[in-house]
Amino acid sequence: MKAASKITPSLGIVRLPHSDGLDLPAYETAGAAGMDLRAAVPEDRPLLILPGRRALVPTGLIFEIPAGFEGQVRPRSGLALKHGVTCLNTPGTIDSDYRGEVKVLLINLGDEDFSVTRGMRIAQIVFAPVTQLPIVEQSLAAATTRGSGGFGSTGSH
Ligand SMILES: O=c1ccn([C@H]2C[C@H](O)[C@@H](COP(=O)(O)OP(=O)(O)OP(=O)(O)O)O2)c(=O)[nH]1
Ligand SMILES: [Mg+2]
Fold first, then answer.
1. Cβ–Cβ < 8 Å for 88, 29
2. What is the pLDDT of residues 85-106, one digit of tens each?
3. Mutate to test the pocket of ligand 1, among 54, 59, 102 (most ligand atoms within 8 A of CB)
4. Taking the complete model, does pTM exceed 0.90, yes or no?
5. Which ligand neighbours the alpha carbon of 97 most closely?
6. How many angstroms separate the alpha carbon of residue 73 from the centre of ligand 1?
7. pLDDT tens string 132-141
8. How far is the CA of 93 from the centre of ligand 2 (A)?
9. Which residue's CA lies nearest to atom 23 of ligand 1?
10. Distance (Å, rounded) from C-alpha 96 to C-alpha 103?
11. What range(s) does the dUTPase-like domain occupy (predicted)?
């Protein structure tokens, strides 16, 4: 009997004109979980983020994520440590049916201006499987030992 063939899902990337010349995202090491995203801001017009302010940074890329997966836009630890710059809506969710430009919402939590320059690696994207559950409306939820306890309820008697 012929073994069932398993096709590895792939990521489609479409370049918009303003990302021309920038490296496409790629896994930098064999075990990398994420691929870095680069800022597609004009060479002669870096995007300045003042302390406490946020900015939506273009990547110049459209992703075609295979059905059953999502993209998670996450901060880069180096930017967070060195400059206090992180993603505001982390992890940002990229739906598999989204066909717009992927953008990164950065916030400057540091105390100095932060300049986003063309090609700067500003965030990373991790792909993960998603499950869409069917919804069942019920009058009651099944009883459990935890019940309604949460927010530090365990361990206290
Ligand atoms: O960091 C992000 C987060 C989202 N998106 C894009 C892709 C995503 O599929 C879409 C919608 O994101 P989300 O569902 O988080 O935003 P929303 O405020 O609920 O908008 P919508 O009503 O369009 O779903 O916006 C980005 O480009 N970057
Ligand atoms: Mg949404």
1. no
2. 999 999 999 999 999 999 999 9
3. 102
4. yes
5. 1
6. 11
7. 999 999 999 9
8. 8
9. 98
10. 15
11. 23-155
